[in-house]
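For the sake of transparency, this paper describes our internal protein records without simplification. Because each token names a local backbone shape, the row as a whole describes the fold. One such record is reproduced below, unchanged from the form in which we store it:
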Amino acid sequence: MTAKKKNFEEALKRLEEIAEEMEKEGTGLEESVKLYKEGVELSVYCAEKLNKAEQQVSSLKINADGTFSKRAFDPEEE
């Protein structure tokens, strides 16, 4: 299954599996390179999904007159 057919959670789980496989002492060079390539593809996919989700998140702010306004989420704001 390619990264494009996975959802975020499946891709993240596969990344964890890849990390575990690459940490094993018996993993050969060719297999490590193959896993690395798959991991890079999955990490790019996950980053794109996270960026898209971040763009969709917004927060409501109370204005001085008591009305609400919608603004993009800013993690630096309190």
